[in-house]
Specification:
By secondary structure, the protein is an alpha/beta fold. The chain has two domains: 88 residues, Leucine Dehydrogenase, chain A, domain 1 (Rossmann fold); 124 residues, NAD(P)-binding Rossmann-like Domain (Rossmann fold, 3-Layer(aba) Sandwich). The protein has ten helices and eleven strands. The chain has a six-stranded parallel β-sheet.
Length: 288
């Protein structure tokens, strides 16, 4: 069994980004601008904010943050986003999810200018991904993609089974695998005979959000498993969808949780910010 860890790849990506920023500054350009909008006081969003702030500052970004009350109205949140939409020093906007129930996540995601949408959730960017010419790709799906490419496994012609069909994980990661000429099967909570289908996969990508759901009945000895989910087990410890202890020695390769996809996801966010930054510097912001 080969363990596919994300640390080495993410460190390499972050080093390249920091180098690009220094080269841009040496040419007299401004630094890349990234803002994180956090609504409410959830522990997950606080941890995410700290991680992104640390990485952005280390890369030399102009990092800003807005920490807003969970009682903020939808209209006021939209006004905050519009402020940064119009800020010429900001290249990327993140709005932490989930949002309070009185705020439409779809409306908020769509309100971020698509050329500043570094999480690639705007319908414009989702449409470009569907048509296979996206420059901004959702961070976690692209992290899965890059991990597989970096690991050196052959993708073309392989059967890829995706467990999950969400707009931010399952659907886009399947599209990326299609672009690599995989044959893709989507499964979800209402799929019949789920273990039987999953066990046929050359590549199994799980993003269902169900702790330790995937056991040995989902696997085969030549399978590569990418565990995208972050869950908490019965002992309060982080785990993925895969029951690692029962599965690891029964497959060809597997990602750990934590330490697999996660580190690369944050590096992709920095990379997406560099894409929007370069587009803005060149005047190629593609605003309609």
């Amino acid at each position: 069994m080969n363990l596919i860890k994300g640390k080495e790849l993410s460190e390499k990506m972050r080093e390249n980004i920091a180098k690009e920023v220094q080269e841009a500054l040496a040419r007299g350009n401004r630094p890349p601008g990234l803002v994180f909008i956090r609504v409410g006081e959830g522990a997950d969003s606080a941890s995410y904010l700290r991680s992104i702030e640390r990485q952005a500052n280390k890369a030399g970004f102009n990092f800003q943050k807005e920490e807003l009350s969970s009682e903020i109205s939808e209209q006021d949140l939209l006004a905050v986003i519009e402020k940064y939409n119009n800020d010429s020093l900001i290249d990327g906007i993140i709005c932490s999810m989930p949002l309070p129930k009185h705020i439409s996540e779809r409306k908020i995601s769509s309100s971020i200018r698509h050329d500043k949408d570094v999480e690639a959730q705007h319908p414009y960017n989702a449409g470009k991904l569907l048509l296979a010419y996206a420059d901004l790709i959702p961070c976690t799906p692209e992290a899965v993609h890059q991990l597989l490419l970096d690991s050196g496994y052959e993708l073309e012609g392989k059967h890829c089974v995706v467990l999950g069909r969400s707009n931010i994980l399952g659907k886009p990661v399947g599209l990326l695998m299609l672009q690599e000429n995989c044959t893709v099967t989507y499964c979800h909570s209402r799929t019949r005979n789920l273990p039987a289908i999953a066990s046929q996969a050359d590549i199994l990508i799980s993003c269902m959000g169900r702790a330790k759901m995937v056991d040995e009945t989902y696997t085969n000895p030549e399978q590569i498993i990418i565990d995208v989910a972050i869950n908490v087990d019965e002992n309060g410890k982080l785990c993925g969808d895969v029951n690692f202890d029962r599965v690891a020695d029964k497959v060809k390769a597997i990602t750990p949780v934590p330490g697999g996809v996660g580190p690369v996801t944050n590096a992709i966010l920095m990379q997406n910010t560099m894409i929007t930054y370069k587009n803005h510097l060149s005047g190629n912001d593609q605003q309609d």
